[in-house]
Design brief:
Layout lengths: L1 E4 L5 E5 L17 E3 L10 E5 L2 E8 L2 E8 L13 E7 L10 E5 L4 E6 L2 E7 L6 E7 L5 E7 L24 H8 L7 E4 L2 E4 L32 H10 L1 H6 L8 H7 L3 H11 L21 H15 E3 L5 E3 L9 E6 L5 E7 L2 E4 L1
Parallel strand pairs: 2-11
Antiparallel strand pairs: 1-12, 3-8, 4-5, 5-6, 6-7, 7-12, 8-9, 9-10, 10-11, 13-14, 15-16, 17-18, 18-19
Helix pairs in contact: 4-5, 4-6, 5-6
Length: about 350
């Protein structure tokens, strides 16, 4: 990377006393993530963000570094990129003093980095796209902030990098969509070993990619599922269609965990969601492996969260609530979620017994 010093308009450095706010008694406080040694490179970074800003934060060879990205930062190839890397260097190498700590306070959305009589607090404002860094030091120090970018010369985008581009996905016009919706046929069905299943199409040569299109009517379209017609047909599809069974996986963006929850298959939903939510291979546990595309793969985390919520709460087509539709009875749990029509639902399962507020 080529580095040059410059003033960054959205980053402010100041010497300040650090104040740590805490929620009211009884509220859930997530456990902080704490590291006691610096990282080798950006694969050992922590996430941090607010508003529409996201950061990767780490300490490497005595310097605090972070990537920054904002929603909508597309380049000329329609690729969503990080804006570059910022480096904060403090004289005296305080983070190499042997008492190093890097802490992600999830309750505050803040990263604290301390060592050698220095503490740095880094966070993004939740009301505006501004990144702040406060420095508290026991003695006067010189701080140097620099910006580093690999985009200092022209280069061709590689074939693999073109997978980041969405030019190939062209959105149809409203007229096109409306006209063609009226032409959609009924959902095709097939019979497998005497059981009615959803078919991926009326006729097809092959199924592209790692998809299971015959289960899309379950989610996200919600035409089949708990409290809806054809539940057994959808369950047959998930459990007995050889193509669907072959595709079962918790990898990347795969939705099997969601379908299992929507169909009330509790054991299957539990198994797949535990795999989805297990730690990734990087230092920060929720940075998942590349899956089908890139690292960290947050498609996996997003699908896991959807599946988890489907295990906790579902709605029928007429708005009737189904609490804990695919939740193991031996897992005590309390949740508060919003419904599609804006209602807030609080429910608890304890000892297998359900109570709803």
């Amino acid at each position: 990377m080529k580095a040059k010093s410059l003033f960054i308009f959205f980053l402010f450095l100041s010497v300040a006393a650090l104040v740590s706010g805490r929620p009211a008694s009884g509220d859930y406080v997530p456990r902080d993530v704490v590291w006691t040694s610096p990282s080798r490179n950006s694969s050992g970074s922590m996430p941090c963000g607010g508003h529409d800003i996201g950061m990767n934060v780490w300490v490497e060879q005595g310097d605090l570094l972070f990537y920054a990205q904002q929603s909508g930062w597309f380049d000329e190839n329609n690729t969503l990129l990080k804006a570059g890397r910022w480096r904060l260097h403090l004289d005296g190498d305080p983070f190499g003093a042997g008492d190093f700590s890097q802490r992600l306070c999830l309750d505050e959305g803040t990263v604290y980095i301390s060592g050698g009589g220095v503490e740095v607090r880094l966070w993004a404002d939740v009301f505006q796209p501004v990144i702040f860094a406060d420095i508290a030091s026991q003695r006067s120090r010189q701080a140097t902030l620099s910006y580093e970018s690999w985009r200092y010369r022209d280069r061709l985008v590689t074939k693999d990098e073109q997978q980041q581009c969405s030019y190939k996905w062209l959105l149809p016009s409203d007229c096109f969509s409306t006209c063609h919706l009226s032409l959609l046929p009924d959902i095709p069905l097939s019979v497998i070993d005497g059981d009615t299943c959803i078919a991926p199409a009326i006729a097809w040569a092959r199924i592209q990619n790692e998809e299971t299109p015959q289960l899309y009517p379950v989610w996200p379209w919600r035409l089949y599922g708990l409290g809806r017609p054809g539940l057994q047909t959808a369950r047959n599809t998930y459990l007995k269609d050889p193509q669907a069974v072959k595709m079962h996986s918790a990898k990347g963006w795969k939705q099997d965990n969601i379908w299992a929850a929507c169909l009330g298959l509790t054991d299957e939903a539990r198994r797949l969601n535990l795999q989805k939510l297990s730690d990734g291979p990087y230092r920060f546990p929720a940075f998942y492996d590349p899956g089908f595309d890139w690292a960290p793969d947050h498609n996996r985390g997003g699908a896991a969260m959807v599946g988890l919520q489907e295990m906790l709460l579902q709605e029928t087509a007429d708005g009737r609530l189904i609490p804990f539709p695919a939740w193991p009875k031996e897992w005590d749990c309390r949740f508060r979620l919003n419904t599609l029509d804006g209602r807030t639902v609080e429910a608890e399962m304890r000892g297998g017994q359900i109570s709803v507020k």
